[in-house]
Design goal:
Strand content: 5-15%
Shape: globular
CATH superfamily: Aldolase class I
Helix content: 40-55%
CATH architecture: Alpha-Beta Barrel
Number of strands: 8
Strand order of the largest sheet: 3-2-1-8
Structural class: alpha/beta
Largest sheet: 4 strands, parallel
Oligomer: single chain
Number of domains: 1
Bound molecules: 3-hydroxy-3-methylglutaryl-coenzyme A, magnesium ion
Number of helices: 13
Order of helices and strands: EHHEHEHEHHHEHEHEHEHHH
CATH class: Alpha Beta
Distance between the termini: 25 Å
Length: 304
Amino acid sequence: MLDELPDKVSVYEVSPRDGLQNEAAPIPTENKRRLIDALVACGLERIELTSFVSPRWVPQLADADLLAADIKRHEGVTFSALCPNAKGFERARDAGLEEIAVFLSASETHNTKNTNKSIAKSLEVFSEVVPPALEAGMRVRAYVSTIWGCPYEGDIDPKKSLGITKSLLELGCYQVSLGDTIGVGTPVQTRQILSMFKSEISLEKLALHFHDTRGTALVNALVGLELGYRDFDASVAGLGGCPYAPGAAGNLATEDLVFMLDRMGVGTGVDLPLLLEAGHIAEAIVGRQLPGKVHQAGLPSLRA
Ligand code: HMG
Ligand code: MG
């Protein structure tokens, strides 16, 4: 299997959104901009900037309008943001964003805690968000959370997650990111879930979103890579977690993913030394040590 590795995969950077949304102390907008500029400088071409959600639910991202409107744009770089409803879409459009991401959970309980809605109601709301967004010339991505397990309901039937994913694609989302929100997935489970998705949906329409809460994010990403998945969400230095999923910790660290891929000859277009610098900016911004392995260990001095 490993001899069929691709030349290149796509990394979707979520640290300014998934990474920062859980931080309790307010982070000045200027510091968020500094982090985003550093991520662009690394060569990352897809970056989730923020969320146009209720500021009461996620106070840390209350500056979304200002941040997205003023962020320096770059040729070839797509900025995206989470949008839960029509109000979020309008805010993102007014800020000039080219892409949004709708989100829901495969678990009814997590979806209600996270968005105050049933799954059916979320899909109904998205049917009023996706078409106008597409008409406005935006691309729409989507997330399905808790596919590998829910903090409230435990195991989730993968067939249910698959059905929700298909509904999102039918609505016009170009890609659905499959989330192990609380980092409980194992390689065996990942192989089972991703094999099932792969048998029903073409792979460019799927991305993988692993949280590294229990140290299994990178190995699960590798299982995905071996199965042909080519889109990986990650967060610099492992920053992050969902505020409405108790125990959720940081995403797969971008440095860990890029380091592994680089050394296996799989390109990402990301400059690793510059990425390490971005990780140190992230650490300075939140004022505490971040968990990424390569972030902490640095790069080895290996000779070719
Ligand atoms: P609600 O309270 O049911 O909303 O929240 P509502 O429609 O009843 O409106 C109540 C008030 O909120 C109104 O204001 C609205 O205008 C306002 P009022 O009249 O009371 O002054 N409001 C908004 N304000 C700004 N922007 C908006 C917006 N919508 C309503 N878009 C809502 C429903 C969905 C808004 C809320 O539950 C919410 O914002 N939830 C977001 C929670 C969140 O961001 N969670 C983390 C992201 S998900 C995640 O991390 C998982 C992921 O990473 C994948 C994975 O790891 O698996 C994506
Ligand atoms: Mg997440």
